[in-house]
Amino acid sequence: MNKTKKNSYSAYDREMLMEKVQMRMSEKRFIHVLGVEEMAVGLAARNGVDVNQASIAALTHDYAKERPDDEMRYIIETEGFDLDLLHYGNPIWHGIVGAYLVEKELGIHDPDILEAIRVHTTGAADMTPLAKVLFVSDYVEKNREFPGVEQARKLALEELDQAVYYEMKHTLQHLIEKNQVIYPPALTAYNAWCQKGYQL
Amino acid sequence: MNKTKKNSYSAYDREMLMEKVQMRMSEKRFIHVLGVEEMAVGLAARNGVDVNQASIAALTHDYAKERPDDEMRYIIETEGFDLDLLHYGNPIWHGIVGAYLVEKELGIHDPDILEAIRVHTTGAADMTPLAKVLFVSDYVEKNREFPGVEQARKLALEELDQAVYYEMKHTLQHLIEKNQVIYPPALTAYNAWCQKGYQL
Questions:
Q1: All residues at 6 or more sequence positions from B151 whose CB lies less than 8 Å from its CB, including other chains
Q2: Is B169 on the interface with A (CB under 8 A)?
Q3: Could you give the angle at which helices A51-60 and A111-118 cross, rounded to 10 degrees?
């Protein structure tokens, strides 16, 4: 699955990938993953992003979400990750370390896909179109229910960049409201995007 | 004014200091400064902090608030400050650079006072009792009016640390609500304090 151009990702490839992902998570999370894929393929098509890349990124984005903390800590300590990550938990690890596991265990080497997985929970100052598609799809897929999701969905269909900023802003607000720690790169991302002038 | 122990800060010293501060700001800001001093002296007395240090820190905390941006930038560039500060503005500079100007121009060398001025807008992971008194007094002094100020005042009188956390949390929320950039050390401070277990 090194190449993801249109003709190299068959329905069979997709089925195989879904099987490998499904083995690693609860039924509820797998339903979420399929919702993200559906949204990501739609947003990709609207925004000139390769739909096969969108499908693969979406199917694999939560691949490491249910991996035991001990295994994740071991990978962070032994595979050259920033050790500051150890102060956080799976909500942060599953994107950054997840990209590593998706490459290593699922053999997906497409750098765009891996980058999209890496930043899918925090966002980043500079995001590729695919990374934006995954970031927003994860937030607004049809199974999500939270105050503001309808507005986020509307923005996602209207203008992807506005939806990215809406998500960054409201995720930070939600974390602070819940007295949760914030991973500093998420602030770096917010600080870059809040200067684009969106009034959301 | 190098020593600030009880007997070395007379009513005359205070008057002289007030004059020097008043020259540097609008009437409205000076009224705020006097409100901060009144609150800081009260919170100092309640919390075992030297009231003279509290008075001096409060009177001088906004000394650089109306200094021209060009002068502040020049000081940041030539006096060894972190050049990343240049990406922010006076709301951040007036504490950090202000402490430098208070020492240089007003001859106040007390490290506790200078540290309290330095962190009075961002807070910090580790704050001295004097720094907490100034940080909170600046937020809740009697002239302040904003949604939540009554609760912040109540917390200030009940337990200073809770008021510190309330202020950090609500200041971040307010900045994000207004699509404002956040100085990363303010997040570092919030991240440290949100792990103390307050449910505010």
A1: B166
A2: yes
A3: 40
Measured CA angle at A130 (ends A40, A164), to 5 deg: 80
Q: What pLDDT is attached to residue B7? A: 55
Q: Burial level of B186, CB count in 10 A (0-12/13-18/19+)?
A: buried
B199 interface with A at CB cutoff 8 Å: yes
Within 8 A of B199 by CB-CB distance, chain A residues are 179
Is B179 in Cβ contact with A190 (below 8 Å)? no
B184 touching A, CB under 8 A?
A: yes
| A176/B contact by beta carbon, under 8 A | yes
Cα distance between residue B99 and residue A27, in whole Å: 57
Quote the pLDDT of residue A2.
47
pLDDT of residue B2: 46
Confidence grade of residue A7 (pLDDT, cut at 50, 70, 90): low
Q: Which candidate in A88, A169, A182 is best for mutational testing of the B interface (most B CBs within 10 A)?
A: A182
* Displacement of CA A42 from its chain's centroid (Å): 16
Query: Minimal Cα distance from A171: which residue of B?
Result: B176
Q: Give the tens place of pLDDT for each residue, B15-69.
A: 999 999 999 999 999 999 999 999 999 999 999 999 999 999 999 999 999 999 9
Q: What is the pLDDT of residue B116?
A: 98
How far CA A129 is from CA of A40, A138, B97, in Å, comes to 11, 14, 40
Given this model, what pLDDT does residue A200 score? 83
A200 touching B, CB under 8 A? yes
Which residue ranges of chain B lie beneath pLDDT 70?
1-7
Q: Are the C-beta atoms of B199 and B169 separated by less than 8 Å? A: no
Is residue A124 helix, strand or coil? Answer: coil
- The reported pLDDT for the residue numbered A8 is 82
**Residue A197 CA neighbour count, 13 Å, CB half:** 0
